[in-house]
């Protein structure tokens, strides 16, 4: 029978399509172990179609999880280490995923939400791409001290005062891209902004983006890019303009800025809420610690507009 594997003793293995269906429900760490069974299993479980199926089933809406990293050490066996956890929204205990050994004792924190299983992590030691399901960690080049950032501390070298990172995925090519945008040059010797791309493959290195960022904007490390609908969204440091970066063709555009008064709000942060670009901020002159959450509706159309989702009064 086609698609079945027969052993010498006459017993039959399951057909390939049924086998793939069963394995697609397993945790990622189990799938990685099964890849070692044989070359054919490795090819089958590494194929783009299986990866898509596994991701789709692992991210069902009824199994939404929170990915987080406590600020204090939580590993009883290694009291100097922190761990990454996932917690399912319906309740129950948090699940420990892995220790942050790669941080070398420094605090590590997620920069982005999980994107198809990968997370961009920042620590005092640098930037990393992490797969918490398989414990795989990739240290990005220039991770401890990006060569174009804060080189004002070194004499006779030009650099930038600000940098912002983001992680995106190109569905057309299946490529993951880390993007970093430098801005606010220390001297007039450097361009006003500088965009670089790191494609996650075996031969990856930082290279200039196909198009460079608009020169009039400043991007800050404390407000990383948000990936949504093929675009990375970056909030400018002054004025709250939203700049977009198309991960596919590496061009820049813009989105409507959140309707906030610069003088009436504190720090504005971009995020993603249920498939929409979101912005939240605290009232600057409020004693009640009130927070506002806005959503950008019809994001991909000319009719895109911001709509207030809620106001949270922390004193209520």
Automatic annotation (TrEMBL):
<feature type="domain" description="F-box">
    <location>
        <begin position="14"/>
        <end position="53"/>
    </location>
</feature>
<dbReference type="InterPro" id="IPR013187">
    <property type="entry name" value="F-box-assoc_dom_typ3"/>
</dbReference>
<dbReference type="InterPro" id="IPR001810">
    <property type="entry name" value="F-box_dom"/>
</dbReference>
<dbReference type="InterPro" id="IPR036047">
    <property type="entry name" value="F-box-like_dom_sf"/>
</dbReference>
<protein>
    <recommendedName>
        <fullName>F-box domain-containing protein</fullName>
    </recommendedName>
</protein>
<dbReference type="InterPro" id="IPR050796">
    <property type="entry name" value="SCF_F-box_component"/>
</dbReference>
<dbReference type="InterPro" id="IPR017451">
    <property type="entry name" value="F-box-assoc_interact_dom"/>
</dbReference>
<dbReference type="Pfam" id="PF00646">
    <property type="entry name" value="F-box"/>
</dbReference>
<dbReference type="Pfam" id="PF08268">
    <property type="entry name" value="FBA_3"/>
</dbReference>
């Amino acid at each position: 029978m086609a698609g079945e594997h027969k052993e010498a003793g006459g017993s039959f293995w399951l057909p390939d399509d049924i086998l793939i269906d069963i394995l697609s429900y397993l945790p990622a760490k189990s799938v990685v172990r099964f890849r070692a069974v044989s070359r054919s299993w490795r090819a089958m479980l590494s194929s783009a179609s299986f990866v898509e199926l596994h991701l789709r089933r692992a991210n069902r809406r009824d199994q939404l999880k929170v990915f987080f990293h406590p600020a204090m050490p939580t590993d009883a066996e290694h009291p100097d280490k922190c761990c990454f956890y996932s917690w399912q929204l319906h309740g129950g205990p948090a699940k420990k995923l892995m220790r942050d050994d790669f941080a070398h004792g420094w605090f590590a924190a997620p920069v982005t939400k999980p994107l198809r299983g990968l997370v961009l992590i920042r620590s005092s030691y640098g930037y990393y791409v992490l797969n918490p399901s398989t414990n795989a960690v990739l240290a990005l080049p220039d991770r401890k001290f990006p060569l174009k950032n804060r080189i004002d501390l070194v004499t006779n070298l030009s650099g930038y005062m600000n940098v912002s990172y983001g992680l995106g995925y190109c569905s057309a090519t299946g490529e993951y891209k880390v993007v970093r945008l430098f801005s606010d040059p220390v001297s007039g010797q450097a361009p006003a902004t500088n965009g670089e791309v790191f494609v996650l493959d075996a031969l990856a290195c930082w290279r200039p983006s196909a198009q460079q960022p608009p020169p009039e904007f400043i991007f800050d490390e404390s407000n990383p890019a948000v990936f949504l609908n093929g675009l990375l969204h970056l909030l400018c440091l002054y004025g709250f303009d939203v700049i977009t970066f198309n991960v596919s063709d590496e061009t820049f555009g813009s989105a409507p800025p959140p309707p906030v008064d610069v003088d009436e709000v504190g720090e504005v942060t971009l995020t993603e809420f249920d498939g929409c670009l979101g912005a939240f901020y605290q009232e600057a002159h409020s004693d009640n610690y009130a927070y506002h959450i806005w959503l950008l509706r019809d994001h991909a159309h000319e009719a895109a507009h911001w709509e207030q989702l809620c106001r949270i009064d922390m004193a209520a």
